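Exam prep: given the inputs below (a chain plus nicotinamide-adenine-dinucleotide), describe the expected output before reading on.
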Amino acid sequence: MTETAFKRIDWSSLDAAGKKTALARPTQRTAGDVTEVVRTILNDVRERGGAAVTEWCLKLDKAPPRRIAITPGAIAEARNALPPADTRALRFAADNIRVFHQATRPEDTPYVETTPGVRSKLAWRPIASAGLYIPGGTAPLFSSLLMLAIPAEVAGVRERIAVTPPNKEGGVHPAMILAAAEAGLDAIWLMGGAQAIAALTFGVELEDGIIPPCDKLFGPGNAYVAEAKKQASALPGGPAVDMPAGPSELMVIVDRDAAPEIAAADLLSQAEHDADAQVLLVSTSRATIDYILTEVEVQVATLPREAIARASLNEARAILVRDLDAAAEVANLYGPEHLSIQVEESEELVESINAAGAVFVGRFAAETLGDYAAGPSHVLPTDGGAKTLGGVTTASFMTTMSVQLVTEDGARQLAPIAARLARMEGLEAHARAADLRADA
Ligand SMILES: NC(=O)c1ccc[n+]([C@@H]2O[C@H](COP(=O)([O-])OP(=O)(O)OC[C@H]3O[C@@H](n4cnc5c(N)ncnc54)[C@H](O)[C@@H]3O)[C@@H](O)[C@H]2O)c1
Ligand SMILES: N[C@H](CO)Cc1c[nH]c[nH+]1
Ligand SMILES: [Zn+2]
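Solution:
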Protein backbone atom coordinates (compact mmCIF):
# COMPACT_ATOMS: atom_id res chain seq x y z
CA MET A 1 0.00 0.00 0.00
CA THR A 2 1.31 3.50 -0.86
CA GLU A 3 1.43 5.65 2.25
CA THR A 4 0.15 9.21 2.20
CA ALA A 5 1.20 12.04 4.47
CA PHE A 6 -1.80 11.56 6.79
CA LYS A 7 -0.73 11.40 10.40
CA ARG A 8 -2.26 8.26 11.93
CA ILE A 9 -3.74 8.50 15.38
CA ASP A 10 -5.23 5.85 17.67
CA TRP A 11 -7.77 7.89 19.63
CA SER A 12 -8.30 5.39 22.43
CA SER A 13 -4.59 5.50 23.34
CA LEU A 14 -4.65 9.25 24.04
CA ASP A 15 -5.18 11.14 27.28
CA ALA A 16 -6.85 14.58 27.30
CA ALA A 17 -3.63 16.44 26.48
CA GLY A 18 -2.80 13.97 23.72
CA LYS A 19 -6.24 14.46 22.17
CA LYS A 20 -5.77 18.21 22.14
CA THR A 21 -2.36 17.90 20.50
CA ALA A 22 -3.68 15.42 17.94
CA LEU A 23 -6.35 17.92 16.87
CA ALA A 24 -4.11 21.01 16.75
CA ARG A 25 -4.61 23.21 13.72
CA PRO A 26 -1.58 23.58 11.46
CA THR A 27 0.45 26.70 12.02
CA GLN A 28 -0.10 28.83 8.91
CA ARG A 29 2.48 27.96 6.31
CA THR A 30 1.93 31.10 4.29
CA ALA A 31 5.22 32.95 3.80
CA GLY A 32 6.32 35.59 6.27
CA ASP A 33 4.90 36.73 9.55
CA VAL A 34 1.22 37.12 8.76
CA THR A 35 0.36 39.12 11.87
CA GLU A 36 3.09 41.70 11.33
CA VAL A 37 2.52 42.05 7.58
CA VAL A 38 -1.17 42.64 8.16
CA ARG A 39 -0.52 45.17 10.93
CA THR A 40 1.80 47.10 8.62
CA ILE A 41 -0.80 47.16 5.83
CA LEU A 42 -3.65 48.26 8.10
CA ASN A 43 -1.57 51.03 9.67
CA ASP A 44 -0.42 52.24 6.29
CA VAL A 45 -3.97 52.42 4.90
CA ARG A 46 -5.22 54.14 8.03
CA GLU A 47 -2.51 56.79 7.65
CA ARG A 48 -2.35 57.25 3.88
CA GLY A 49 -5.75 56.02 2.66
CA GLY A 50 -6.29 55.19 -1.02
CA ALA A 51 -2.66 55.80 -2.03
CA ALA A 52 -1.56 53.06 0.35
CA VAL A 53 -4.25 50.66 -0.91
CA THR A 54 -3.09 51.23 -4.48
CA GLU A 55 0.55 50.66 -3.61
CA TRP A 56 -0.15 47.42 -1.72
CA CYS A 57 -2.36 46.17 -4.56
CA LEU A 58 0.39 46.86 -7.06
CA LYS A 59 3.04 45.29 -4.85
CA LEU A 60 1.11 42.13 -3.94
CA ASP A 61 -1.24 41.60 -6.86
CA LYS A 62 0.41 43.56 -9.70
CA ALA A 63 -2.70 45.61 -10.49
CA PRO A 64 -4.23 48.81 -9.11
CA PRO A 65 -7.65 48.68 -7.44
CA ARG A 66 -10.39 48.93 -10.05
CA ARG A 67 -14.17 49.29 -9.91
CA ILE A 68 -16.03 47.03 -12.33
CA ALA A 69 -19.56 48.30 -12.93
CA ILE A 70 -22.11 45.54 -13.45
CA THR A 71 -23.77 47.13 -16.46
CA PRO A 72 -25.96 45.38 -19.06
CA GLY A 73 -22.96 45.59 -21.44
CA ALA A 74 -20.58 43.96 -18.92
CA ILE A 75 -23.14 41.22 -18.22
CA ALA A 76 -23.64 40.50 -21.93
CA GLU A 77 -19.88 40.35 -22.47
CA ALA A 78 -19.44 37.96 -19.54
CA ARG A 79 -22.30 35.78 -20.77
CA ASN A 80 -20.76 35.58 -24.22
CA ALA A 81 -17.46 34.50 -22.74
CA LEU A 82 -19.01 31.42 -21.10
CA PRO A 83 -20.80 28.33 -22.42
CA PRO A 84 -24.57 28.64 -21.84
CA ALA A 85 -24.47 25.64 -19.48
CA ASP A 86 -22.10 27.57 -17.17
CA THR A 87 -24.53 30.48 -17.03
CA ARG A 88 -27.43 28.13 -16.34
CA ALA A 89 -25.52 26.39 -13.52
CA LEU A 90 -24.79 29.76 -11.93
CA ARG A 91 -28.46 30.75 -12.11
CA PHE A 92 -29.48 27.37 -10.62
CA ALA A 93 -27.13 27.86 -7.69
CA ALA A 94 -28.20 31.48 -7.16
CA ASP A 95 -31.87 30.48 -7.15
CA ASN A 96 -31.28 27.75 -4.55
CA ILE A 97 -29.27 30.10 -2.34
CA ARG A 98 -31.99 32.76 -2.56
CA VAL A 99 -34.79 30.27 -1.80
CA PHE A 100 -32.95 28.94 1.25
CA HIS A 101 -32.18 32.37 2.64
CA GLN A 102 -35.65 33.74 2.02
CA ALA A 103 -37.14 30.77 3.86
CA THR A 104 -34.77 31.16 6.82
CA ARG A 105 -34.80 34.97 7.17
CA PRO A 106 -35.65 35.68 10.80
CA GLU A 107 -38.94 37.38 11.54
CA ASP A 108 -39.98 39.59 14.44
CA THR A 109 -41.11 37.55 17.43
CA PRO A 110 -44.68 37.94 18.67
CA TYR A 111 -45.19 40.28 21.63
CA VAL A 112 -44.69 38.55 24.97
CA GLU A 113 -46.74 39.89 27.91
CA THR A 114 -44.63 39.46 31.06
CA THR A 115 -46.91 41.54 33.29
CA PRO A 116 -50.45 42.60 32.31
CA GLY A 117 -50.00 45.69 30.13
CA VAL A 118 -46.26 45.14 29.58
CA ARG A 119 -45.53 43.65 26.18
CA SER A 120 -42.17 43.18 24.46
CA LYS A 121 -40.88 41.63 21.27
CA LEU A 122 -37.64 41.23 19.33
CA ALA A 123 -37.59 43.09 16.01
CA TRP A 124 -35.03 42.24 13.31
CA ARG A 125 -33.42 44.99 11.24
CA PRO A 126 -30.78 44.82 8.49
CA ILE A 127 -27.40 46.40 9.11
CA ALA A 128 -26.73 49.46 6.93
CA SER A 129 -23.55 48.42 5.13
CA ALA A 130 -21.62 45.22 4.57
CA GLY A 131 -18.17 44.70 3.09
CA LEU A 132 -18.01 41.37 1.26
CA TYR A 133 -14.62 39.73 0.69
CA ILE A 134 -14.62 37.27 -2.21
CA PRO A 135 -11.44 35.12 -2.32
CA GLY A 136 -9.55 35.00 -5.58
CA GLY A 137 -5.87 34.41 -4.89
CA THR A 138 -5.56 30.92 -6.31
CA ALA A 139 -9.10 30.39 -7.71
CA PRO A 140 -11.86 32.86 -8.54
CA LEU A 141 -14.43 31.88 -5.88
CA PHE A 142 -17.47 33.52 -7.48
CA SER A 143 -19.53 30.98 -5.52
CA SER A 144 -18.49 32.90 -2.38
CA LEU A 145 -19.94 36.04 -3.93
CA LEU A 146 -23.32 34.30 -4.24
CA MET A 147 -22.98 32.90 -0.71
CA LEU A 148 -22.49 36.39 0.76
CA ALA A 149 -24.25 38.88 -1.48
CA ILE A 150 -27.53 36.94 -1.74
CA PRO A 151 -28.10 36.51 2.02
CA ALA A 152 -27.16 40.19 2.43
CA GLU A 153 -29.71 41.15 -0.22
CA VAL A 154 -32.42 38.97 1.35
CA ALA A 155 -31.66 40.52 4.75
CA GLY A 156 -32.24 43.96 3.22
CA VAL A 157 -28.72 45.44 3.55
CA ARG A 158 -28.71 48.78 1.72
CA GLU A 159 -25.02 48.98 0.88
CA ARG A 160 -23.10 45.87 -0.16
CA ILE A 161 -19.51 46.45 -1.24
CA ALA A 162 -17.82 43.43 -2.78
CA VAL A 163 -14.07 43.14 -3.23
CA THR A 164 -12.04 40.38 -4.89
CA PRO A 165 -8.41 40.10 -6.03
CA PRO A 166 -7.65 40.56 -9.72
CA ASN A 167 -6.61 37.53 -11.75
CA LYS A 168 -3.13 37.17 -13.22
CA GLU A 169 -4.07 39.42 -16.15
CA GLY A 170 -5.35 42.11 -13.81
CA GLY A 171 -8.96 41.34 -14.76
CA VAL A 172 -11.80 39.24 -13.43
CA HIS A 173 -13.35 35.88 -14.36
CA PRO A 174 -16.59 36.41 -16.32
CA ALA A 175 -18.46 34.24 -13.82
CA MET A 176 -17.65 36.80 -11.12
CA ILE A 177 -19.52 39.42 -13.18
CA LEU A 178 -22.47 37.08 -13.70
CA ALA A 179 -22.54 36.13 -10.01
CA ALA A 180 -22.58 39.83 -9.12
CA ALA A 181 -25.45 40.34 -11.55
CA GLU A 182 -27.36 37.37 -10.08
CA ALA A 183 -26.93 38.89 -6.63
CA GLY A 184 -28.06 42.33 -7.77
CA LEU A 185 -24.76 44.13 -7.10
CA ASP A 186 -24.05 47.27 -9.09
CA ALA A 187 -20.25 46.90 -8.90
CA ILE A 188 -17.36 44.82 -7.67
CA TRP A 189 -13.97 46.18 -6.69
CA LEU A 190 -10.88 44.39 -7.91
CA MET A 191 -8.57 44.35 -4.91
CA GLY A 192 -7.69 41.63 -2.47
CA GLY A 193 -5.83 40.68 0.67
CA ALA A 194 -5.36 42.73 3.82
CA GLN A 195 -5.33 45.95 1.78
CA ALA A 196 -8.91 45.31 0.63
CA ILE A 197 -10.00 44.62 4.21
CA ALA A 198 -8.26 47.86 5.24
CA ALA A 199 -10.12 49.80 2.53
CA LEU A 200 -13.47 48.45 3.79
CA THR A 201 -12.47 49.22 7.38
CA PHE A 202 -11.30 52.81 7.07
CA GLY A 203 -13.04 53.89 3.87
CA VAL A 204 -10.79 55.22 1.11
CA GLU A 205 -10.80 57.41 -1.94
CA LEU A 206 -9.51 55.62 -5.03
CA GLU A 207 -9.14 56.64 -8.66
CA ASP A 208 -12.39 54.84 -9.60
CA GLY A 209 -14.45 56.16 -6.69
CA ILE A 210 -14.97 56.20 -2.96
CA ILE A 211 -15.29 53.17 -0.70
CA PRO A 212 -17.06 54.10 2.53
CA PRO A 213 -16.15 52.41 5.82
CA CYS A 214 -18.43 49.41 6.32
CA ASP A 215 -20.32 48.50 9.48
CA LYS A 216 -19.50 44.80 9.22
CA LEU A 217 -17.03 42.77 7.18
CA PHE A 218 -17.85 39.33 5.84
CA GLY A 219 -16.15 36.61 3.94
CA PRO A 220 -13.63 33.88 3.75
CA GLY A 221 -10.03 34.21 2.74
CA ASN A 222 -6.49 33.06 3.28
CA ALA A 223 -4.45 33.66 6.41
CA TYR A 224 -3.82 37.34 5.50
CA VAL A 225 -7.50 38.07 4.98
CA ALA A 226 -8.57 36.24 8.14
CA GLU A 227 -5.91 38.05 10.19
CA ALA A 228 -6.85 41.43 8.67
CA LYS A 229 -10.51 40.93 9.66
CA LYS A 230 -9.43 40.00 13.17
CA GLN A 231 -7.19 43.05 13.55
CA ALA A 232 -9.78 45.41 11.98
CA SER A 233 -12.49 44.29 14.38
CA ALA A 234 -10.18 44.88 17.36
CA LEU A 235 -9.64 48.56 16.43
CA PRO A 236 -11.53 51.12 18.53
CA GLY A 237 -14.64 51.88 16.48
CA GLY A 238 -13.59 49.21 13.97
CA PRO A 239 -16.10 47.18 12.00
CA ALA A 240 -17.82 44.06 13.27
CA VAL A 241 -16.84 40.86 11.48
CA ASP A 242 -18.73 37.70 10.71
CA MET A 243 -16.33 35.04 12.04
CA PRO A 244 -12.89 33.51 11.51
CA ALA A 245 -13.36 31.99 8.03
CA GLY A 246 -9.87 30.98 7.04
CA PRO A 247 -8.40 28.03 5.13
CA SER A 248 -10.95 25.28 4.57
CA GLU A 249 -11.41 22.25 6.81
CA LEU A 250 -13.22 18.96 6.37
CA MET A 251 -13.65 16.05 8.74
CA VAL A 252 -15.09 12.84 7.27
CA ILE A 253 -16.47 10.17 9.59
CA VAL A 254 -16.80 6.74 8.02
CA ASP A 255 -17.56 3.21 9.13
CA ARG A 256 -16.42 0.00 7.50
CA ASP A 257 -19.10 0.26 4.79
CA ALA A 258 -17.87 3.58 3.44
CA ALA A 259 -17.04 3.95 -0.25
CA PRO A 260 -13.28 4.71 -0.29
CA GLU A 261 -13.31 6.59 -3.60
CA ILE A 262 -16.07 8.91 -2.33
CA ALA A 263 -14.45 9.63 1.03
CA ALA A 264 -11.08 10.20 -0.67
CA ALA A 265 -12.62 12.55 -3.23
CA ASP A 266 -14.29 14.54 -0.46
CA LEU A 267 -11.05 14.89 1.51
CA LEU A 268 -9.21 16.09 -1.59
CA SER A 269 -11.98 18.53 -2.47
CA GLN A 270 -11.02 20.62 0.52
CA ALA A 271 -7.28 19.85 0.51
CA GLU A 272 -7.06 21.41 -2.95
CA HIS A 273 -8.20 24.80 -1.62
CA ASP A 274 -5.03 25.83 0.15
CA ALA A 275 -1.75 24.49 1.49
CA ASP A 276 -3.11 25.67 4.85
CA ALA A 277 -6.39 23.71 4.50
CA GLN A 278 -6.80 20.73 6.84
CA VAL A 279 -8.65 17.45 6.29
CA LEU A 280 -9.30 14.70 8.82
CA LEU A 281 -10.56 11.16 8.41
CA VAL A 282 -12.17 9.47 11.39
CA SER A 283 -13.14 5.82 11.28
CA THR A 284 -14.08 2.86 13.41
CA SER A 285 -12.24 0.59 10.96
CA ARG A 286 -8.48 0.44 10.41
CA ALA A 287 -8.97 -1.40 7.13
CA THR A 288 -11.29 1.34 5.84
CA ILE A 289 -8.72 3.98 6.74
CA ASP A 290 -6.13 2.01 4.75
CA TYR A 291 -8.41 1.76 1.70
CA ILE A 292 -9.24 5.45 1.79
CA LEU A 293 -5.65 6.61 2.20
CA THR A 294 -4.63 4.42 -0.72
CA GLU A 295 -7.42 5.94 -2.76
CA VAL A 296 -6.34 9.48 -1.74
CA GLU A 297 -2.88 8.71 -3.09
CA VAL A 298 -4.32 7.48 -6.40
CA GLN A 299 -6.61 10.45 -6.83
CA VAL A 300 -4.27 13.22 -5.68
CA ALA A 301 -1.78 12.35 -8.40
CA THR A 302 -4.39 13.17 -11.04
CA LEU A 303 -5.39 16.59 -9.73
CA PRO A 304 -4.49 19.85 -11.48
CA ARG A 305 -3.91 21.37 -8.02
CA GLU A 306 -1.88 18.38 -6.84
CA ALA A 307 0.87 20.51 -5.28
CA ILE A 308 -1.55 22.49 -3.12
CA ALA A 309 -3.44 19.35 -2.11
CA ARG A 310 -0.24 17.51 -1.20
CA ALA A 311 0.97 20.43 0.90
CA SER A 312 -2.35 20.38 2.74
CA LEU A 313 -2.16 16.59 3.24
CA ASN A 314 1.02 17.07 5.26
CA GLU A 315 -1.26 18.27 8.03
CA ALA A 316 -4.01 15.69 7.45
CA ARG A 317 -5.08 13.25 10.17
CA ALA A 318 -6.42 9.69 10.03
CA ILE A 319 -7.97 8.89 13.39
CA LEU A 320 -9.00 5.40 14.46
CA VAL A 321 -11.82 5.43 17.00
CA ARG A 322 -13.42 2.64 19.01
CA ASP A 323 -17.01 3.55 18.15
CA LEU A 324 -19.20 6.32 16.77
CA ASP A 325 -19.54 7.98 20.18
CA ALA A 326 -15.79 8.51 20.08
CA ALA A 327 -16.11 9.82 16.50
CA ALA A 328 -18.60 12.41 17.74
CA GLU A 329 -16.21 13.32 20.55
CA VAL A 330 -13.45 13.94 17.99
CA ALA A 331 -15.76 16.14 15.90
CA ASN A 332 -16.98 18.15 18.87
CA LEU A 333 -13.47 18.70 20.18
CA TYR A 334 -12.18 19.84 16.79
CA GLY A 335 -15.24 21.82 15.64
CA PRO A 336 -14.65 21.39 11.89
CA GLU A 337 -15.83 23.87 9.29
CA HIS A 338 -17.38 20.93 7.41
CA LEU A 339 -18.31 17.53 8.77
CA SER A 340 -19.25 14.72 6.43
CA ILE A 341 -20.88 11.68 8.00
CA GLN A 342 -20.79 8.53 5.89
CA VAL A 343 -21.89 5.75 8.22
CA GLU A 344 -24.80 3.35 8.24
CA GLU A 345 -27.08 5.56 10.36
CA SER A 346 -25.66 8.94 9.41
CA GLU A 347 -28.66 11.02 10.44
CA GLU A 348 -28.67 9.47 13.90
CA LEU A 349 -25.10 10.55 14.50
CA VAL A 350 -26.00 14.19 13.80
CA GLU A 351 -27.80 14.23 17.17
CA SER A 352 -24.43 13.79 18.91
CA ILE A 353 -22.75 16.63 16.99
CA ASN A 354 -22.75 20.12 18.44
CA ALA A 355 -19.73 21.82 16.89
CA ALA A 356 -19.51 21.97 13.09
CA GLY A 357 -20.10 24.74 10.57
CA ALA A 358 -22.05 22.47 8.21
CA VAL A 359 -22.88 18.78 8.43
CA PHE A 360 -23.26 16.66 5.30
CA VAL A 361 -25.32 13.59 6.00
CA GLY A 362 -24.76 10.36 4.09
CA ARG A 363 -22.62 9.55 1.09
CA PHE A 364 -24.78 11.41 -1.41
CA ALA A 365 -24.48 14.70 0.45
CA ALA A 366 -21.13 15.65 -1.05
CA GLU A 367 -19.56 18.64 0.63
CA THR A 368 -19.08 20.02 -2.88
CA LEU A 369 -22.86 20.27 -3.32
CA GLY A 370 -22.96 22.54 -0.29
CA ASP A 371 -20.00 24.55 -1.59
CA TYR A 372 -21.96 25.54 -4.67
CA ALA A 373 -25.61 24.95 -4.82
CA ALA A 374 -27.53 23.23 -2.00
CA GLY A 375 -28.66 26.58 -0.58
CA PRO A 376 -27.05 27.39 2.80
CA SER A 377 -24.05 29.72 2.69
CA HIS A 378 -20.68 28.02 2.43
CA VAL A 379 -19.07 30.83 4.42
CA LEU A 380 -18.40 28.98 7.65
CA PRO A 381 -16.23 29.25 10.75
CA THR A 382 -12.82 27.59 10.74
CA ASP A 383 -10.18 27.15 13.43
CA GLY A 384 -12.65 25.82 15.99
CA GLY A 385 -14.99 28.81 15.62
CA ALA A 386 -17.84 26.34 15.12
CA LYS A 387 -17.80 25.58 18.84
CA THR A 388 -19.48 28.93 19.46
CA LEU A 389 -20.48 30.32 16.06
CA GLY A 390 -22.61 29.33 13.10
CA GLY A 391 -21.94 30.13 9.45
CA VAL A 392 -23.25 33.10 7.50
CA THR A 393 -27.05 33.37 7.41
CA THR A 394 -29.44 36.25 6.76
CA ALA A 395 -29.32 36.85 10.54
CA SER A 396 -25.60 37.61 10.20
CA PHE A 397 -26.61 40.70 8.20
CA MET A 398 -29.22 41.77 10.72
CA THR A 399 -29.52 42.87 14.32
CA THR A 400 -32.30 42.56 16.83
CA MET A 401 -33.73 45.24 19.03
CA SER A 402 -36.30 44.73 21.71
CA VAL A 403 -39.48 46.79 21.40
CA GLN A 404 -41.31 47.42 24.69
CA LEU A 405 -44.92 48.65 25.00
CA VAL A 406 -46.37 49.57 28.41
CA THR A 407 -49.91 50.65 29.19
CA GLU A 408 -50.82 52.91 32.11
CA ASP A 409 -52.00 49.89 34.09
CA GLY A 410 -48.83 48.03 33.21
CA ALA A 411 -46.71 50.93 34.46
CA ARG A 412 -48.69 51.09 37.70
CA GLN A 413 -47.72 47.45 38.37
CA LEU A 414 -44.15 47.43 37.16
CA ALA A 415 -42.86 50.90 38.10
CA PRO A 416 -42.76 50.27 41.89
CA ILE A 417 -40.73 47.13 41.29
CA ALA A 418 -38.27 48.96 39.04
CA ALA A 419 -38.07 51.92 41.45
CA ARG A 420 -37.30 49.62 44.36
CA LEU A 421 -34.59 47.77 42.42
CA ALA A 422 -33.12 51.11 41.28
CA ARG A 423 -32.87 52.35 44.89
CA MET A 424 -31.27 49.05 45.88
CA GLU A 425 -28.59 49.82 43.28
CA GLY A 426 -28.29 53.38 44.59
CA LEU A 427 -29.61 54.90 41.36
CA GLU A 428 -32.10 57.52 42.52
CA ALA A 429 -32.65 59.15 39.12
CA HIS A 430 -33.75 55.80 37.69
CA ALA A 431 -36.15 55.33 40.61
CA ARG A 432 -37.75 58.77 40.15
CA ALA A 433 -38.27 58.15 36.41
CA ALA A 434 -40.19 55.01 37.39
CA ASP A 435 -42.10 56.77 40.21
CA LEU A 436 -43.44 59.31 37.73
CA ARG A 437 -45.09 56.45 35.78
CA ALA A 438 -46.49 54.77 38.85
CA ASP A 439 -48.17 57.98 39.96
CA ALA A 440 -49.30 59.17 36.52
N1 LIG B 1 -14.03 29.28 5.63
C1 LIG B 1 -14.74 29.51 4.55
O1 LIG B 1 -15.96 29.71 4.62
C2 LIG B 1 -14.08 29.54 3.20
C3 LIG B 1 -14.83 29.67 2.03
C4 LIG B 1 -14.16 29.76 0.80
C5 LIG B 1 -12.77 29.75 0.77
N2 LIG B 1 -12.07 29.64 1.92
C6 LIG B 1 -10.61 29.73 1.95
O2 LIG B 1 -10.29 30.98 1.36
C7 LIG B 1 -8.93 30.93 0.99
C8 LIG B 1 -8.72 31.63 -0.34
O3 LIG B 1 -7.35 31.92 -0.41
P1 LIG B 1 -6.66 32.56 -1.67
O4 LIG B 1 -5.23 32.76 -1.30
O5 LIG B 1 -6.95 31.73 -2.87
O6 LIG B 1 -7.37 33.94 -1.93
P2 LIG B 1 -7.58 35.25 -1.03
O7 LIG B 1 -8.36 36.18 -1.88
O8 LIG B 1 -8.07 34.93 0.31
O9 LIG B 1 -6.10 35.85 -0.84
C9 LIG B 1 -5.41 36.43 -1.89
C10 LIG B 1 -4.76 37.72 -1.42
O10 LIG B 1 -3.81 37.44 -0.39
C11 LIG B 1 -2.84 38.44 -0.41
N3 LIG B 1 -1.54 37.83 -0.19
C12 LIG B 1 -1.05 36.71 -0.76
N4 LIG B 1 0.24 36.51 -0.38
C13 LIG B 1 0.56 37.54 0.45
C14 LIG B 1 1.74 37.91 1.17
N5 LIG B 1 2.86 37.15 1.12
N6 LIG B 1 1.71 39.03 1.92
C15 LIG B 1 0.59 39.79 2.01
N7 LIG B 1 -0.55 39.49 1.34
C16 LIG B 1 -0.56 38.37 0.58
C17 LIG B 1 -2.84 39.08 -1.78
O11 LIG B 1 -3.08 40.46 -1.65
C18 LIG B 1 -4.01 38.41 -2.51
O12 LIG B 1 -4.87 39.35 -3.13
C19 LIG B 1 -8.52 29.47 1.00
O13 LIG B 1 -7.75 29.26 2.15
C20 LIG B 1 -9.84 28.74 1.14
O14 LIG B 1 -9.67 27.52 1.79
C21 LIG B 1 -12.68 29.53 3.13
N1 LIG C 1 -15.15 24.89 0.51
C1 LIG C 1 -15.11 26.34 0.58
C2 LIG C 1 -15.45 26.72 2.01
O1 LIG C 1 -14.48 26.29 2.89
C3 LIG C 1 -16.06 27.02 -0.35
C4 LIG C 1 -15.80 26.83 -1.79
C5 LIG C 1 -15.89 27.75 -2.80
N2 LIG C 1 -15.62 27.12 -3.96
C6 LIG C 1 -15.40 25.87 -3.68
N3 LIG C 1 -15.49 25.69 -2.39
ZN1 LIG D 1 -14.67 24.05 -1.37
